[in-house]
Specification:
The chain is of the alpha/beta class. Helix content is 39%, strand content 22%. Strand 4, helix 7 and strand 5 form a beta-alpha-beta unit. Helix 3 runs parallel beside helix 9 and helix 6 packs across helix 7. The longest helix is centred in the first third of the chain and has 13 residues.
């Protein structure tokens, strides 16, 4: 117990003077690929900042597609079942400490709301970023307390239609919270290994 704690403290001290933007991508591979224009716009607005993406293992290798945008990517297993979400605060706090994210994070963005976004909200909260941006979902009345708890983890919370696509949600967060307007990417192909398998991705504006 002592050794992991000391490792976490050392990681926090080492990164304390860094200025970091944290993008918590809880979606799947396709959703994360479609947020690339928003990530590029974020990099243009903050050219000197470190941008770290927290992603699910299925999206491992996102940094290989946009190395000029992302400084680092960290894998996190977002809880999906009721039992997993029950322990999500503890898991998120341990994850943030272990990866040195509790110091130096100035902005945390979670461009998604879904069954696995509760973990993203807690990662954002424990990062201690002064600006934490995310989405709110006002659902059934019996879940009012859950929604209130979830919303309280952010400093800026927005509501969107359920049918809005993940890429549009990321654009909306940047526009409303930071005044950044992502530009559409021209159609092009990218080849890079993702999750140890070769993929060819074609981006086309639509």
């Amino acid at each position: 117990m002592v050794v992991p704690f000391m490792v976490a403290v050392h990681a926090c001290i080492r990164t304390r003077k860094r200025s970091r933007l944290l993008v918590i991508c809880t979606g799947g591979l396709g959703d994360n690929l479609l947020t690339i224009p928003a990530l590029k716009s974020l990099r243009e607005a903050y050219p000197a900042e470190e941008i770290t993406a927290v992603i699910r293992p299925v999206s491992a290798g996102l940094i290989d597609l946009i190395p000029e945008v992302l400084t680092n990517e960290i894998l996190y297993h977002f809880g999906r079942g009721p039992l997993s979400r029950l322990f999500e605060p503890l898991r998120a706090a341990r994850f943030v400490l272990r990866n040195g994210l509790a110091f130096g994070t100035t902005l945390a963005i979670t461009p998604r709301y879904g069954v696995d976004s509760v973990g993203g909200a807690f990662v954002s909260f424990f990062s201690r970023a002064p600006i934490r941006v995310g989405f709110s979902a006002k659902v059934e009345r019996e879940k009012f307390f859950r929604n209130w708890l979830y919303d309280s983890l952010y400093t800026k919370c927005y509501s969107v239609p359920a049918e809005m696509h993940e890429a549009s949600k990321a654009d909306l967060l940047l526009r409303e919270a930071l005044g950044i307007r992502p530009a559409a990417l021209p159609a092009r192909e990218l080849s890079a290994p993702i999750s140890a398998a070769p993929y060819t991705i074609c981006f086309a504006p639509f």
